[in-house]
Amino acid sequence: MEQERKKDRFNVSEDKSLRAILSKFGSLLGLLLLCVILTFASDQFLTFKNIMNIANQSALNSLISVGMLLTILTAGIDLSVGSVLALSICVMAVAITKWHLNAMMAIILCLVVGSFLGFINGILLTKLKLPHPFISTLAMKNVAAGLALIVTGASPISGFSKSVQFLGSEKIGLIPVSFILVIAVYAIFHIFLNRTAQGRYIYAVGGNPEAAKLSGVNVSKTLVLVYSLSGFMAALCGIVLVGRVNAAFPLAGLNYDADAIAACIIGGASFMGGSGTVWGTLIGSMIMAVLRNGLNLLGVPADVQTVAIGLVIIGAVYVDVLRTQAQKKAKTNSNSNTNTNTPVNVKA
Protein backbone atom coordinates (compact mmCIF):
# COMPACT_ATOMS: atom_id res chain seq x y z
CA MET A 1 0.00 0.00 0.00
CA GLU A 2 2.81 2.36 0.98
CA GLN A 3 4.67 1.57 -2.26
CA GLU A 4 1.57 2.40 -4.30
CA ARG A 5 1.28 5.76 -2.52
CA LYS A 6 4.92 6.54 -3.25
CA LYS A 7 4.41 5.54 -6.88
CA ASP A 8 1.37 7.84 -7.14
CA ARG A 9 3.32 10.71 -5.59
CA PHE A 10 6.16 10.12 -8.06
CA ASN A 11 3.74 10.13 -11.02
CA VAL A 12 2.05 13.32 -9.80
CA SER A 13 5.37 15.12 -9.29
CA GLU A 14 6.58 13.92 -12.70
CA ASP A 15 3.33 15.18 -14.29
CA LYS A 16 3.69 18.54 -12.56
CA SER A 17 7.30 18.93 -13.67
CA LEU A 18 6.39 18.10 -17.29
CA ARG A 19 3.50 20.55 -17.11
CA ALA A 20 5.80 23.21 -15.70
CA ILE A 21 8.34 22.66 -18.50
CA LEU A 22 5.64 22.87 -21.19
CA SER A 23 4.16 25.96 -19.55
CA LYS A 24 7.54 27.68 -19.38
CA PHE A 25 9.07 26.63 -22.70
CA GLY A 26 5.99 25.64 -24.74
CA SER A 27 6.03 28.75 -26.94
CA LEU A 28 9.78 28.40 -27.58
CA LEU A 29 9.34 24.74 -28.53
CA GLY A 30 6.48 25.78 -30.82
CA LEU A 31 8.70 28.38 -32.52
CA LEU A 32 11.50 25.84 -33.04
CA LEU A 33 9.06 23.24 -34.41
CA LEU A 34 7.59 25.79 -36.83
CA CYS A 35 11.09 26.72 -38.01
CA VAL A 36 11.99 23.05 -38.59
CA ILE A 37 8.81 22.46 -40.62
CA LEU A 38 9.36 25.55 -42.78
CA THR A 39 13.04 24.66 -43.28
CA PHE A 40 11.98 21.39 -44.92
CA ALA A 41 9.07 23.04 -46.76
CA SER A 42 11.16 25.82 -48.36
CA ASP A 43 14.87 25.96 -49.15
CA GLN A 44 14.71 29.77 -48.94
CA PHE A 45 13.60 29.86 -45.30
CA LEU A 46 16.81 29.08 -43.39
CA THR A 47 19.02 31.71 -45.02
CA PHE A 48 20.66 34.69 -43.30
CA LYS A 49 18.84 37.13 -45.56
CA ASN A 50 15.45 35.63 -44.72
CA ILE A 51 16.22 35.44 -40.99
CA MET A 52 17.06 39.16 -40.99
CA ASN A 53 13.89 39.76 -42.99
CA ILE A 54 11.86 37.98 -40.28
CA ALA A 55 13.62 40.00 -37.57
CA ASN A 56 12.71 43.19 -39.41
CA GLN A 57 9.12 42.08 -40.02
CA SER A 58 8.60 41.12 -36.37
CA ALA A 59 9.79 44.48 -35.01
CA LEU A 60 6.49 46.34 -35.34
CA ASN A 61 4.39 43.67 -33.65
CA SER A 62 7.06 43.10 -31.00
CA LEU A 63 7.14 46.77 -29.99
CA ILE A 64 3.38 47.15 -29.75
CA SER A 65 2.99 43.75 -28.03
CA VAL A 66 5.16 44.60 -25.03
CA GLY A 67 2.83 47.51 -24.26
CA MET A 68 -0.16 45.20 -24.71
CA LEU A 69 1.48 42.70 -22.34
CA LEU A 70 1.40 45.24 -19.50
CA THR A 71 -2.35 45.69 -19.88
CA ILE A 72 -2.97 41.93 -20.07
CA LEU A 73 -0.86 41.41 -16.93
CA THR A 74 -3.40 43.60 -15.10
CA ALA A 75 -6.26 41.44 -16.50
CA GLY A 76 -7.06 44.21 -18.98
CA ILE A 77 -6.70 44.88 -22.69
CA ASP A 78 -5.97 47.81 -24.99
CA LEU A 79 -7.96 47.81 -28.21
CA SER A 80 -6.86 51.33 -29.11
CA VAL A 81 -3.16 50.70 -29.84
CA GLY A 82 -3.59 50.73 -33.63
CA SER A 83 -5.53 54.00 -33.66
CA VAL A 84 -3.19 55.56 -31.07
CA LEU A 85 -0.30 54.66 -33.38
CA ALA A 86 -2.09 56.25 -36.36
CA LEU A 87 -2.95 59.52 -34.58
CA SER A 88 0.54 59.83 -33.05
CA ILE A 89 2.38 59.52 -36.36
CA CYS A 90 -0.15 61.76 -38.13
CA VAL A 91 0.46 64.52 -35.57
CA MET A 92 4.21 64.02 -36.04
CA ALA A 93 3.84 64.23 -39.82
CA VAL A 94 1.77 67.42 -39.64
CA ALA A 95 4.27 68.92 -37.18
CA ILE A 96 7.13 68.30 -39.61
CA THR A 97 5.45 69.25 -42.90
CA LYS A 98 3.13 72.09 -41.83
CA TRP A 99 4.47 73.41 -38.51
CA HIS A 100 8.08 72.96 -39.69
CA LEU A 101 9.13 71.39 -36.38
CA ASN A 102 12.58 69.76 -36.46
CA ALA A 103 12.70 65.96 -36.65
CA MET A 104 13.79 65.28 -33.06
CA MET A 105 11.10 67.52 -31.55
CA ALA A 106 8.47 65.94 -33.82
CA ILE A 107 9.51 62.44 -32.72
CA ILE A 108 9.27 63.50 -29.06
CA LEU A 109 5.83 65.00 -29.79
CA CYS A 110 4.75 61.69 -31.32
CA LEU A 111 5.76 59.81 -28.15
CA VAL A 112 4.04 62.41 -25.95
CA VAL A 113 0.79 62.13 -27.94
CA GLY A 114 0.82 58.33 -27.67
CA SER A 115 1.55 58.45 -23.94
CA PHE A 116 -1.17 61.05 -23.37
CA LEU A 117 -3.80 58.99 -25.21
CA GLY A 118 -2.81 55.97 -23.12
CA PHE A 119 -3.00 58.16 -20.00
CA ILE A 120 -6.58 59.10 -20.95
CA ASN A 121 -7.40 55.39 -21.32
CA GLY A 122 -6.15 54.83 -17.79
CA ILE A 123 -8.05 57.81 -16.38
CA LEU A 124 -11.29 56.71 -18.08
CA LEU A 125 -10.88 53.24 -16.60
CA THR A 126 -10.02 54.30 -13.05
CA LYS A 127 -11.96 57.55 -12.52
CA LEU A 128 -15.17 56.49 -14.28
CA LYS A 129 -15.02 53.11 -12.52
CA LEU A 130 -15.68 51.25 -15.77
CA PRO A 131 -16.13 47.49 -15.35
CA HIS A 132 -13.51 46.60 -17.98
CA PRO A 133 -10.94 48.49 -20.12
CA PHE A 134 -12.60 46.98 -23.19
CA ILE A 135 -15.09 49.88 -23.03
CA SER A 136 -12.65 52.78 -22.57
CA THR A 137 -10.09 51.51 -25.09
CA LEU A 138 -12.77 50.71 -27.69
CA ALA A 139 -14.02 54.28 -27.34
CA MET A 140 -10.47 55.63 -27.66
CA LYS A 141 -9.94 53.45 -30.74
CA ASN A 142 -12.78 55.23 -32.55
CA VAL A 143 -11.90 58.71 -31.28
CA ALA A 144 -8.22 58.42 -32.24
CA ALA A 145 -9.05 56.92 -35.65
CA GLY A 146 -11.41 59.79 -36.40
CA LEU A 147 -8.92 62.43 -35.25
CA ALA A 148 -6.19 60.87 -37.42
CA LEU A 149 -8.42 61.31 -40.47
CA ILE A 150 -9.25 64.91 -39.49
CA VAL A 151 -5.63 65.90 -38.81
CA THR A 152 -4.38 64.63 -42.18
CA GLY A 153 -7.47 65.41 -44.24
CA ALA A 154 -7.76 61.62 -44.83
CA SER A 155 -4.58 61.71 -46.95
CA PRO A 156 -1.15 60.15 -46.34
CA ILE A 157 1.84 62.42 -45.69
CA SER A 158 5.23 61.38 -47.05
CA GLY A 159 8.75 62.62 -47.69
CA PHE A 160 10.57 62.52 -44.33
CA SER A 161 14.22 63.09 -43.55
CA LYS A 162 16.76 60.32 -42.89
CA SER A 163 16.67 61.04 -39.14
CA VAL A 164 12.94 60.25 -39.04
CA GLN A 165 13.44 57.11 -41.12
CA PHE A 166 16.46 55.86 -39.13
CA LEU A 167 14.70 53.43 -36.76
CA GLY A 168 12.68 51.81 -39.52
CA SER A 169 15.02 51.68 -42.48
CA GLU A 170 18.67 51.60 -41.39
CA LYS A 171 20.96 48.72 -40.44
CA ILE A 172 23.94 48.41 -38.12
CA GLY A 173 26.17 46.00 -39.97
CA LEU A 174 23.74 43.43 -41.32
CA ILE A 175 21.20 43.71 -38.49
CA PRO A 176 18.14 46.00 -38.81
CA VAL A 177 18.12 48.89 -36.33
CA SER A 178 14.44 48.13 -35.65
CA PHE A 179 15.29 44.67 -34.28
CA ILE A 180 18.15 46.06 -32.16
CA LEU A 181 15.61 48.52 -30.77
CA VAL A 182 13.26 45.61 -29.97
CA ILE A 183 15.96 43.76 -27.99
CA ALA A 184 16.87 46.94 -26.08
CA VAL A 185 13.22 47.71 -25.27
CA TYR A 186 12.51 44.15 -24.14
CA ALA A 187 15.60 44.13 -21.91
CA ILE A 188 14.41 47.38 -20.28
CA PHE A 189 10.89 46.05 -19.71
CA HIS A 190 12.28 42.76 -18.36
CA ILE A 191 14.24 44.71 -15.74
CA PHE A 192 11.23 46.94 -15.06
CA LEU A 193 8.82 44.05 -14.46
CA ASN A 194 11.18 41.80 -12.51
CA ARG A 195 13.56 44.15 -10.69
CA THR A 196 11.41 47.11 -9.64
CA ALA A 197 8.63 47.51 -7.09
CA GLN A 198 6.31 49.05 -9.70
CA GLY A 199 6.80 46.04 -11.96
CA ARG A 200 5.82 43.69 -9.13
CA TYR A 201 2.78 45.89 -8.45
CA ILE A 202 1.62 45.28 -12.03
CA TYR A 203 1.68 41.50 -11.49
CA ALA A 204 -0.03 41.93 -8.10
CA VAL A 205 -2.85 44.05 -9.54
CA GLY A 206 -3.48 41.44 -12.25
CA GLY A 207 -3.31 38.51 -9.84
CA ASN A 208 -5.64 39.92 -7.19
CA PRO A 209 -6.46 43.66 -7.23
CA GLU A 210 -8.24 43.58 -3.85
CA ALA A 211 -5.31 41.88 -2.14
CA ALA A 212 -2.91 44.30 -3.85
CA LYS A 213 -4.96 47.25 -2.60
CA LEU A 214 -4.97 45.88 0.96
CA SER A 215 -1.18 45.48 0.69
CA GLY A 216 -0.80 49.18 0.03
CA VAL A 217 -0.56 49.14 -3.78
CA ASN A 218 -2.13 52.15 -5.49
CA VAL A 219 -4.17 50.20 -8.04
CA SER A 220 -5.45 53.26 -9.93
CA LYS A 221 -1.97 54.74 -10.29
CA THR A 222 -0.61 51.39 -11.51
CA LEU A 223 -3.35 51.06 -14.15
CA VAL A 224 -2.83 54.62 -15.40
CA LEU A 225 0.91 53.92 -15.73
CA VAL A 226 0.27 50.67 -17.60
CA TYR A 227 -2.03 52.26 -20.20
CA SER A 228 0.30 55.26 -20.58
CA LEU A 229 3.17 52.88 -21.36
CA SER A 230 0.97 51.00 -23.82
CA GLY A 231 0.28 54.28 -25.64
CA PHE A 232 3.99 55.16 -25.57
CA MET A 233 4.91 51.82 -27.17
CA ALA A 234 2.22 52.26 -29.83
CA ALA A 235 3.73 55.63 -30.74
CA LEU A 236 7.27 54.18 -30.81
CA CYS A 237 6.04 51.41 -33.10
CA GLY A 238 4.52 54.11 -35.31
CA ILE A 239 7.88 55.90 -35.63
CA VAL A 240 9.46 52.64 -36.83
CA LEU A 241 6.59 52.15 -39.30
CA VAL A 242 7.04 55.67 -40.71
CA GLY A 243 10.75 55.00 -41.13
CA ARG A 244 10.01 51.80 -43.01
CA VAL A 245 7.47 53.14 -45.52
CA ASN A 246 8.49 56.84 -45.47
CA ALA A 247 4.86 57.85 -44.97
CA ALA A 248 2.32 58.52 -42.25
CA PHE A 249 -1.25 57.55 -43.08
CA PRO A 250 -4.43 57.72 -40.97
CA LEU A 251 -5.37 54.07 -41.46
CA ALA A 252 -2.03 52.76 -40.17
CA GLY A 253 -2.10 50.11 -37.47
CA LEU A 254 -5.55 48.90 -38.48
CA ASN A 255 -5.24 45.30 -37.15
CA TYR A 256 -2.26 45.76 -34.86
CA ASP A 257 -4.31 45.24 -31.70
CA ALA A 258 -5.29 41.68 -32.71
CA ASP A 259 -1.71 40.73 -33.62
CA ALA A 260 -0.40 42.16 -30.34
CA ILE A 261 -2.98 40.27 -28.27
CA ALA A 262 -2.17 37.06 -30.13
CA ALA A 263 1.58 37.50 -29.53
CA CYS A 264 1.03 37.95 -25.79
CA ILE A 265 -1.27 34.94 -25.42
CA ILE A 266 0.90 32.69 -27.60
CA GLY A 267 3.84 33.77 -25.44
CA GLY A 268 2.17 32.53 -22.26
CA ALA A 269 0.29 35.56 -20.92
CA SER A 270 -3.23 34.99 -19.58
CA PHE A 271 -6.37 37.08 -19.95
CA MET A 272 -6.97 36.35 -16.26
CA GLY A 273 -3.98 38.58 -15.45
CA GLY A 274 -0.94 38.16 -13.24
CA SER A 275 1.01 35.81 -15.52
CA GLY A 276 3.17 36.36 -18.58
CA THR A 277 6.73 37.32 -19.43
CA VAL A 278 8.44 39.81 -21.68
CA TRP A 279 10.55 37.20 -23.47
CA GLY A 280 7.55 34.91 -23.91
CA THR A 281 5.78 37.78 -25.67
CA LEU A 282 8.79 38.27 -27.95
CA ILE A 283 8.67 34.57 -28.86
CA GLY A 284 4.93 34.90 -29.55
CA SER A 285 5.62 37.83 -31.86
CA MET A 286 8.36 35.86 -33.62
CA ILE A 287 5.96 32.94 -34.14
CA MET A 288 3.51 35.31 -35.87
CA ALA A 289 6.29 36.73 -38.07
CA VAL A 290 7.73 33.30 -38.93
CA LEU A 291 4.27 31.99 -39.81
CA ARG A 292 3.56 34.93 -42.13
CA ASN A 293 7.01 34.68 -43.71
CA GLY A 294 6.66 30.94 -44.24
CA LEU A 295 3.24 31.29 -45.82
CA ASN A 296 4.63 33.93 -48.20
CA LEU A 297 7.53 31.68 -49.18
CA LEU A 298 5.12 28.82 -49.84
CA GLY A 299 3.04 31.08 -52.11
CA VAL A 300 -0.09 30.99 -49.96
CA PRO A 301 -2.57 33.71 -51.07
CA ALA A 302 -3.02 36.73 -48.79
CA ASP A 303 -6.69 35.95 -48.06
CA VAL A 304 -5.80 32.41 -46.95
CA GLN A 305 -3.01 33.86 -44.78
CA THR A 306 -5.58 36.03 -43.01
CA VAL A 307 -7.68 32.94 -42.28
CA ALA A 308 -4.60 31.10 -40.97
CA ILE A 309 -3.65 33.97 -38.63
CA GLY A 310 -7.25 34.09 -37.38
CA LEU A 311 -7.13 30.38 -36.59
CA VAL A 312 -3.84 30.86 -34.75
CA ILE A 313 -5.45 33.57 -32.60
CA ILE A 314 -8.41 31.29 -31.81
CA GLY A 315 -6.00 28.49 -30.95
CA ALA A 316 -3.97 30.78 -28.69
CA VAL A 317 -7.08 31.89 -26.78
CA TYR A 318 -8.21 28.25 -26.43
CA VAL A 319 -4.79 27.28 -25.04
CA ASP A 320 -5.09 30.14 -22.54
CA VAL A 321 -8.50 28.81 -21.42
CA LEU A 322 -7.10 25.29 -20.99
CA ARG A 323 -4.08 26.65 -19.11
CA THR A 324 -6.30 28.65 -16.75
CA GLN A 325 -8.55 25.64 -16.10
CA ALA A 326 -5.51 23.44 -15.39
CA GLN A 327 -4.14 26.00 -12.92
CA LYS A 328 -7.49 26.21 -11.12
CA LYS A 329 -7.73 22.42 -10.97
CA ALA A 330 -4.18 22.12 -9.62
CA LYS A 331 -4.91 24.78 -7.00
CA THR A 332 -8.12 23.00 -5.95
CA ASN A 333 -6.33 19.65 -5.67
CA SER A 334 -3.55 21.25 -3.65
CA ASN A 335 -6.05 22.79 -1.23
CA SER A 336 -7.96 19.50 -0.85
CA ASN A 337 -4.72 17.61 -0.16
CA THR A 338 -3.77 20.18 2.46
CA ASN A 339 -7.15 19.85 4.15
CA THR A 340 -6.92 16.03 4.07
CA ASN A 341 -3.47 15.98 5.66
CA THR A 342 -4.38 18.50 8.38
CA PRO A 343 -4.96 16.65 11.68
CA VAL A 344 -8.30 17.23 13.33
CA ASN A 345 -8.33 17.67 17.10
CA VAL A 346 -11.34 16.05 18.69
CA LYS A 347 -12.14 17.08 22.25
CA ALA A 348 -13.24 14.36 24.58
Automatic annotation (TrEMBL):
Primary subcellular site in the record, as a coarse category: membrane
Keyword Transferase: no
Annotated InterPro entries: ABC_transp_permease
Entry coiled-coil feature ranges: none
Membrane topology designation: Multi-pass membrane protein
Domain of life where this protein originates: Bacteria
Transmembrane segments annotated in the record for this chain: 21-42, 62-94, 101-123, 143-160, 172-193, 224-249, 261-284, 304-322
Biased composition (Low complexity): 332-342
Localization per Swiss-Prot or TrEMBL: Cell membrane
Keyword terms, alphabetized: Cell membrane, Membrane, Transmembrane, Transmembrane helix
Region spans: Disordered: 329-348
This protein's name: ABC transporter permease
